[in-house]
Structures are given as C-alpha cells and as structure tokens.
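Board notes (copied after class):
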Amino acid sequence: MEFFGEAVNTLSTLVIALGAGLAVWGVINLLEGYGNDNAGAKSQGIKQLMAGGGVVLIGMNLVPLLSGLFG
C-alpha cells in the first residue's frame, strides 16, 4: 500500500505542475494579447489561465482522494 500512496503523491505533483504550466502559458498569451491589442489572444489567454487553475485545484483536491479508495 505504501507504493500506491507514493504513486498518488507523485501523480498529484505532476497534475499540479501541468496545471501551473498551463496557467503560466495563459498569462503569457494574455499579456501578449494586451500588448498587441488582440482580442483573440486575450480570450485564449484567460481561458488557459482559468483552465490551468482548474487543473491545479483537481491536483490538490481530487487526486489525493484516490489514496482513500483502496486504503
């Protein structure tokens, strides 16, 4: 069971890192959209930022619940 717990912790870390990367990419697109006055880039940037935040929340809240399924 220790292996499964460690795997869940690793998965949680990976999901959080993926979400943070997506959020950073969204911020870059958002700033680029403001710099070029491009509504499409602004819209895409805010969507990526929100999606990254959602993935981070999933990694922090839902993934650790997996350890309780088999424990």
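Comment from the instructor: Residues 2-36 form the longest helix (35 residues). The helical segments are 2-36, 39-61.
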